[in-house]
Description:
The structure holds two protein chains of two kinds.
Chain A: H1 3-13, H2 23-31
Chain B: H1 15-23, H2 29-47, H3 50-67, H4 76-97, H5 99-115, H6 127-134, H7 139-150, H8 155-162, H9 166-184
Helix pairs in contact in B: 2-3, 2-4, 3-4, 4-8, 5-6, 7-9, 8-9
Amino acid sequence: MSENEHNFRKIVAGLRTDDEPNPLHRERLRRQ
Amino acid sequence: MVAIMAKPVEQTVYDDLVILAKSQASALGRPYELYYDRVFRFCVHRLFNRSTAEDVTSSVFLTVARTMREFKGRTEQDFRSWLYTIAANQANAHIRKTLRRQRLMKNMVAARMEDSPERGAWSSLDWPTLYAAIGQLKPEHQTLLTLRFFENMDYDEIARIVKARPATVRVTLHRILRRLEDVLRGDLGGDE
Lengths: 32, 192
């Protein structure tokens, strides 16, 4: 892994991306 | 680009389920449960907005349900690659429809540079700023970056999804990271 890739991976690991799925949407879509 | 598989696909306990889901719509429930969260997260990382990500996630799984019979693969790994290909294409189609958004993101990166022009490209990056910078790349390059660094996929799996050689993916990603560094240093020249 290049140094750039290593550094970028560390940045991404520290991000807070608000990516928690919504169970209501999951269930609504499953019923479709 | 030409698809060349560097490694044979692995067999998993879900291979039979995938085969069953090709002929029985009711069998699609399990693959859906397995992959909903991953597809949603991929969409958030590609589209930023949760509501938009939910819309595209819905569209991805409705496409899967409608076209499952046409799916040519036989393993869970084939299914996963197919699913991500659909998700990547739909996310990119959405991004191309919203060019105004790209201009707003460019302003956001420029504002960061005005705040603190001397700092390094990777220093003190928050998600909105990084997303805005990624948004300056070609949509196909954004996809590669997301699959590699947010989905933590290896080059072989990414290659299957984007239908390229693993070596091409590796070299392209190297260039993308350098381009992203330039963007974060304030070089906002077009990448189209």
